[in-house]
Write a structure and sequence with these properties.
The strands form 3 sheets. This protein has a 5-stranded mixed β-sheet with strand order 7-6-8-5-9. The protein is an alpha/beta fold. It is built from 14 helices and 10 strands. The chain is globular and about 60 Å long.
Length: 303
């Protein structure tokens, strides 16, 4: 009888120790991938990218419990990309055309092939492109309705013919990136009388006041509608597809696999019109984080 009691006591101890070890391992795994840890999300210095960063942050915090530091409005593309490479941020919203043409100086083609190229090129640097949001925010050029009528403008080729008489206002990086104005000059022989770099909000103020003739635009800019601008057709297809998604460090996804699951829920959830509406709300005075949060609630992605 005593021997049986000893065996029962020993069996209880073994079961208890095993249970404690299993709980400890599970807790450690959850902390890494689901309910603990800390990451930093960055963004570039324009409205849309900031909104997308807040969308990403809300999704991760709502669905994983991982703490997210928000480092928005870092600067232009090269600043955000360098921050990602240096691990100052672990992820941020990016565009396939920018990755392929600007960071890796490779040729772009259609949307599907450019996405595949972005993923392949980034893999070499232990980076990944995940969760395409569902819209492409390509560059274009726009004029006010009066200028379009005066010069009978419909396409970039039309604009190139009269460009020596006109001024262009654009964000700073548009003036020197290979996939923007320098490339346009070669492709269309488009040489403006004057080109001025500035913050995005200022260029729209200038064209609204008729203090410039042409502005660079993103196809999802809310200001296009607010200023009733005429967007010209890129008839020689110079600008590549700029499908929006998430640029992230591979080591971050390995450490926190729950991040990918949370962000994958955003895949295909935003069309071009929805993004333009969100951008317009910020232009009208709403905060980027509030606009992002309300959108996720309206889509049923968070509560």
């Amino acid at each position: 009888m005593k021997r049986n009691k000893r065996w029962i006591t020993l069996l209880i101890c073994i079961v208890t120790i095993t249970s404690l070890l299993t709980t400890a391992c599970s807790s450690s795994s959850a902390t890494e991938g689901t309910t603990g840890g800390e990451i930093t999300i960055g963004s570039k210095n324009f409205t849309e990218n900031i909104i997308l960063a807040y969308l990403m942050a809300d999704m991760i915090e709502n669905r994983t419990g991982i703490k997210v530091n928000r480092k928005v409005n870092l600067g232009g593309s090269s600043v955000a990309w360098t921050a990602l490479q240096n691990n100052n941020i672990q992820l941020y919203p990016e565009y396939t055309g920018t990755i392929v043409a600007n960071y890796y100086q490779q040729e772009t083609t259609n949307s599907k092939e450019t996405l595949a190229s972005a993923k392949r090129l980034m893999k070499k640097d232990d980076l990944q492109f995940i969760a395409p949001f569902g819209f492409s925010n390509t560059y274009s050029l726009a004029v006010n309705q009066e200028t379009a009528q005066k010069y009978n403008l419909k396409t970039f080729s039309d604009l190139a013919k009269v460009s020596p008489n006109l001024e262009l206002a654009s964000e700073f990086e548009f003036t020197d990136r290979a996939d923007t104005y320098p490339g346009l000059k070669k492709k269309y022989n488009m040489i403006f009388k004057d080109v001025r770099g500035m913050d995005q909000g200022i260029k729209y103020r200038l064209i609204g006041q008729h203090d410039t003739d042409v502005v660079s635009v993103y196809s999802t800019d809310g200001q296009i509608k607010l200023n009733n601008l005429f967007v010209l057709k890129d008839d020689k297809h110079f600008f590549p597809p700029y499908d929006a998604g998430v640029a992230v460090r591979s080591e971050t996804l390995k450490k926190y696999p729950a991040i990918k699951e949370a962000l994958d829920a955003l895949q295909g959830q935003i069309n071009e019109q929805e993004m333009q509406i969100m951008n317009a709300k910020v232009d009208q005075g709403y905060r980027e984080d509030d606009v992002a949060h309300e959108f996720l609630i309206s889509k049923g992605l968070i509560k």
